[in-house]
Design a protein that fits this description.
Shape: globular
CATH architecture: Orthogonal Bundle
CATH class: Mainly Alpha
Helix content: 55-70%
CATH superfamily: Tetracycline Repressor, domain 2
Strand content: under 5%
Number of helices: 9
Number of domains: 1
Number of strands: 0
Structural class: mainly alpha
CATH topology: Tetracycline Repressor, domain 2
Radius of gyration: 18 Å
Distance between the termini: 47 Å
Length: about 170
């Protein structure tokens, strides 16, 4: 809290005027960050020629631009984190809801196999998250541009196994 107060150029006690404790501050910051991640998804969808997984490129870009916040939000044990299956399947996650929507639409159009939308979304998310975690841990040594390309190719490899055998491309 002292480091945060110094960075914000306020006293530590000023923080406690607005937030009861560190956890309350982190919950408020997390709520704000979900909105920012949504912006990353929207921008990725608007500018990418990669059909279907464009939002996952937004997830990657957020993770690369804000590694510490990403780590806290998606890789730290927290009491307020959304969990699978109950909360994630109930549509409480602002980020996973975007992926659920894509997967549901692709299943409905016959592009992806007719399977459990939540489990399929979880598989895609886990794959993407695992690659990002490996990159953040220094296990993948590539410049950002090459890692982004590897990330998207890898997600496409995963989707090859999820495609409906009668249709082979996500559009």
């Amino acid at each position: 809290m002292r480091r945060l107060a110094r960075a914000a150029r306020i006293t530590p006690m000023a923080i406690y005027k607005h937030f009861m404790n560190r956890d309350a501050l982190l919950r408020a910051a997390t709520a704000t960050e979900y909105k920012r991640i949504g912006g990353y998804f929207r921008r990725a969808n608007a500018r990418s020629s990669i059909k279907g997984l464009r939002g996952m490129l937004g997830y990657l870009d957020y993770a690369l631009d804000h590694p510490n916040l990403f780590q806290y939000m998606f890789s730290s044990a927290r009491k307020d984190a959304y969990t699978f299956p109950s909360e994630l399947n109930a549509g409480k996650s602002p980020t996973l809801n975007i992926l659920h929507s894509f997967v549901r639409e692709a299943i409905d159009r016959g592009v992806l196999r007719n399977s459990d939308v939540f489990e399929m979304s979880l598989a895609i998310w886990a794959h993407a998250h695992g690659l990002i975690a490996l990159y953040h841990a220094g296990r993948i040594e590539l410049p950002r541009k090459q890692f982004r390309q590897l990330y998207m190719r890898s997600l496409n490899y995963l989707l090859d196994g999820l495609y409906n055998p009668k249709r082979r491309r996500v559009s």
